[in-house]
Design goal:
single chain; elongated
Length: about 80
């Protein structure tokens, strides 16, 4: 996967905002310790109230990792102890 430029991320933000007809969007990518952010209708450091939307987002991400063989739901997370 190639690094995402701030210009490309900004274009994605504009496209997503228009497609979903939302008032603002902020995006961020963290890869190999480098952070790239962009926003449309907001500043990248604006705080958004996301309520419970993070739960299905995390579940979808986890199941994608399971599908790709990168996560086993029957194994405890790395760094945890099982008594």
């Amino acid at each position: 996967m190639e690094p995402v430029s701030s210009d490309k991320l900004a274009a994605s933000a504009r496209e997503a905002r228009a497609r979903w007809s939302i008032p603002a969007i902020a995006l961020g990518v963290l890869r190999d310790g480098e952070t790239v952010t962009a926003a449309d209708g907001a500043r990248p450091d604006d705080v958004f109230r996301i309520a419970s939307i993070s739960k299905p987002f995390l579940a979808t991400l986890a199941m994608g990792l399971v599908r790709d063989g990168l996560l086993d739901l029957d194994e405890p997370p790395p760094g945890t102890r099982v008594s």
